[in-house]
Amino acid sequence: MGDTVTPVSESEIFRTGRRMVQLAVPGAQSLAGRAPLGDGAPFRVLNGTEVLWEGNAGESFDVTPQSPNVYLVSENAENVEWGNLARSGTVPTEAGEVNHIVLRGENIGQGDAGPALRSMLGRAAAHGMRGGSVTLELPKGEYHFYPEGALHMSYYISNHDQQDIQPVGLPVVGQKNLKINGNGSVFVFHGAMQPVLLMDSEGVELNDITIRHDAPYYNEGKIVHIENGKTTLEFGPQFRWEVKDGQYYLMGDGAPKRAYAVLAFEADGRMVATGKAGDMGWPSRAEQVAPNRVRFDADASKMGLKEGQVLVLRHYGRPHPAMVLYHADNVTLNRVVFQDSQGMALIAQRSRNISINGGGCICAPGRVYTVSADATHFSNCGGHISVNGALYEGMMDDAINVHSTCLSIAKVASPTEIIARYMHGQAIGFEVFAKGESIQFIKGKTLENHPQLGKVAEVEWLNEHHLRIVLEAPLPEGIGVGDAIENADWYPSVSFTDSTVQHNRARGTLFTTPKPVLVEGCRFLGSSGSAILLAGDAQGWYESGRCLDVRIVNNLFDHNLIQRYQFTEGIISIYPMVREPAEQKERYHRNIVIEGNTFLTHRVPLIYAISADGIIFQNNRVEFDDKHAPMHGGKPYVLQHCGKTDLQKF
């Protein structure tokens, strides 16, 4: 009896990125077809760990991936029409192997570890597809990964610069029930690349691994001399830079980039309390005056700085986070440490049930900063997110940010058909809605959530900025162009417990989800802005998900808000971006309990709140001092357009 041949319909292809489409190939089926016509070679077919086929435009292929998905990639053109795709073979009706195997990564610590580890991960994926589980055991060591040995993939990453191709050093793709034991190993990534990707996987556990780059993305220079309006910085040997034609360039990923700003730290890692925005403009005009010293055309003393302090020279690019979770469910990270990144440390999207135990973002010896943006970021996730016992320090942004992404209604084609637009350039492309999922309608000017949910009957990806959505029922009355929509099925609950956030830019934690949020037993030490922010907007970043159940209990807040930054007007800042709060009939955030905490603080608001109802602030120990300049006249509470409150008196 011959194999059954099943043509692949257009609706089965998911557009993962600009140059890559994904297709499910269940069981041990084969996939045949041809590459698109026209420019775009080389064309490739991947299984998530290796290249199965490579060819030119119009050439035919026939592959058996031995994993649940294939990825169709072009390097030089968008994949629009992969022609005449068809599956063949019989899908197994029940699992075969159900045993557990151990793969030992011996003798892969020399040279580029990427190809050897990918080969092992390919074996693990095939075993997992048959119902088994796998432990990948790595001897403690230092493993190096290079762009030349990376797997070229393409996918959208929320809140990052959108790259056409992501060279992935360690693709953990198409895995089921996989445990990777690093045993204290360090993974070192070279050049511009995506270090780790967990995609289309379930039940993955990573243990005892440190992730860093061979050279930091930003540079740190100690102020050794200020004279005649110029400042001399001394750089350690781990930092890469060059002075060319009188301009200073950061060379952390091998490509020259100008430093537009600096952040100032004390030598012990504490941020300098400037009372300003944190980022300070910095000229690139400079001259090299010694092998490890550069003199800049800047007077640091006029910025309130002095010799002995450390400046982090930075720009604003976010090309590659250190780790991406995409369609990755039931993931556990135990004692995984990020020492630096070329973007965020961990970004998760469309993933469920993520647990982080220990580890975090921890400064390498002799360094004061870790990652270039957020430590952890969860965009359109579900299930439960748990962070316990972690340390987050020296980040350029938040320790954790949990939110949904809302899209603007750009056009109402009919009562049941809308065109929705991704509004922020760093939050485009990845799927926010799928057929059968629920829609929350949001009034754009007031952020009020409509009580009636919608249901997606059909969704069509028009381009990376626009979706066509067909609804099962007409739009609710009063919802139209300029309003927003978010996915009501993808909200996570969060517990952030027994963790430390210290000496970071921006905010300590940021939550925007209607599911329960618990912050308990944590220490917020010198976060430059608010320790906790409850946000939400249908403008700017379009990050949404009102908070309806938040408990902040038994934490230590020790001198936060030493600098001004976005939405950081109180130690706990409840700051949704509401364009017309006076028009609201219902407050955006609700039911926020703050009890049993200790606040050691200069005279800044303990709570700054806009559009909140049901705030309880009781039984907290508060000690005020005058270590830093006050804000808002030293008032303990600043409330605007808020409802019921129960606030401790001073």
**Helicity range:** under 10%
Number of domains: 5
Characterize the biggest β-sheet: 33 strands, mixed
Instruction: Please state the overall shape, judged from the principal axes of the Cα atoms.
Output: globular
* SS summary, helix count: 1
Give the percentage of residues in beta strands: over 45%
Helix and strand content put the structural class at mainly beta
Q: Termini separation (Å)?
A: 83 Å
- Arithmetic mean pLDDT: 94
Low-pLDDT sequence parts: none
Radius of gyration: 25 Å
Total count of strands? 58
Describe how the helices and strands are arranged.
Blueprint: E1 5-7, E2 14-15, E3 20-24, E4 30-34, E5 43-46, E6 51-55, E7 60-63, E8 69-74, E9 83-88, E10 100-104, H1 114-129, E11 133-137, E12 142-145, E13 151-153, E14 166-173, E15 176-189, E16 194-213, E17 219-227, E18 230-235, E19 241-244, E20 247-250, E21 257-258, E22 261-265, E23 280-281, E24 286-290, E25 293-296, E26 310-314, E27 323-329, E28 331-338, E29 346-349, E30 352-357, E31 360-361, E32 376-379, E33 382-388, E34 391-393, E35 400-405, E36 407-414, E37 417-421, E38 438-442, E39 454-463, E40 466-471, E41 484-487, E42 493-497, E43 500-502, E44 509-511, E45 517-520, E46 523-525, E47 532-534, E48 543-544, E49 550-553, E50 556-558, E51 572-574, E52 589-595, E53 598-602, E54 607-610, E55 612-618, E56 621-625, E57 637-640, E58 645-647
Parallel strand pairs: 10-11, 11-15, 12-15, 14-16, 15-16, 16-27, 16-28, 27-29, 28-30, 28-31, 29-32, 30-33, 31-34, 32-35, 33-42, 34-43, 35-44, 42-45, 43-46, 44-47, 45-49, 46-50, 47-51, 49-52, 50-53, 51-54, 52-55, 53-56, 54-57, 55-58
Antiparallel strand pairs: 1-9, 2-3, 3-8, 4-7, 4-9, 5-6, 5-8, 13-14, 17-18, 17-26, 18-25, 19-20, 20-21, 22-23, 22-26, 24-25, 35-48, 36-37, 36-41, 37-40, 38-39, 38-41, 39-40
